Amino acid sequence: MRIVKPHRSPEPASEAPILEADDVTVSFTAPGGGFLGLSKREVRAVNGVSLSVRRGETLGIVGESGSGKSTLGRALLGLEKVGSGHVTFDGIRVSDGRRAALATLRRRTAMVFQDPANSLNPRLTVNETLAEVLRVHGKVPRGGEAARVAELLSLVGLDPALGDRRPRALSGGQCQRVGIARALAVEPDLVIADECIAALDVSIQGQIINLFLDLQERIGLTLVFIAHDLAIVRRLCDRVAVMYLGRIVEEGPTEAVFAAPRHPYTAALIAAIPEIDPDMRLPDAAMGGEPPSPMALPDGCAFHPRCAHAEEPCRTGAPPILARRDGHGWACILAPGTLLSPSPTPARHQTLEISA
Question: How many domains does the chain have?
Answer without folding.
Answer: 1
